[in-house]
User: Fold this.
Amino acid sequence: MGTTTKACGHCGGSLSGRADKKFCSDQCRARAGNQRKLEDEGEQLMRQINLTLRKNRHILHRVSPEGKTTLRREVLLQAGFDFRHFTHLYRTKSGSTYHFCYDYGYLLLDEEKVLIVNWQQYMEKR
Assistant:
C-alpha cells in the first residue's frame, strides 16, 4: 500500500491530522478564503458598493452631525457623494421620498438643494 500525502490547498505544504483536512493551518485557510473573495467579481462589486455606502453615510454625518440640515447638492457632490447608492427609501404620507444611507437620509428639494435628516423611530417599516 502506497503512502499518499496531501498538500495544503493554499501553500502546498504537507498535511497531517484528519483525513479530510484541506489546509495546514488556520492562516492558510483564511488566506485561501480571502484570495477566493478577491477573484470573485460578485464579491468585488459588493465590496465596492459597501465602501460607497459607508462613504456616503460618512459625508452625510460630517455635513449634518446633529440632524436636520439643508444645503446645496453641489456640496455633497464635491465631497464625493454618490447619489446612485443608498440602503433604503422612506416615503412620507405627502408623497416625498427620502433616500437613506443607513441612519442618515436625504430629500432632494427644488433649486438643487438637499434636506438631510437622521433616521427617526416613526420611520420604522410599516
